[in-house]
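Title: [Solved] HigA family addiction module antidote protein 3D structure

Original question kept below for reference.
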Amino acid sequence: MHGIVRAQHSIKTETALLFSRYFGNSAEFWMGLQSQYDLESAEDRLSQKLDKVVAYSSGE
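Solution (posted by the thread starter after getting help):
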């Protein structure tokens, strides 16, 4: 758990199941937290590249 709190390790499926049993909530809750963290981290890393992407237009 120490590595997860310090963002050195991610929450894997098995860990989510164990945490959900221990804390009395769902594994989906823990997987959702990890997914949200991963997306925010990727946005931070790719911010300059994402700023250059032009949205698709169907031309209509």
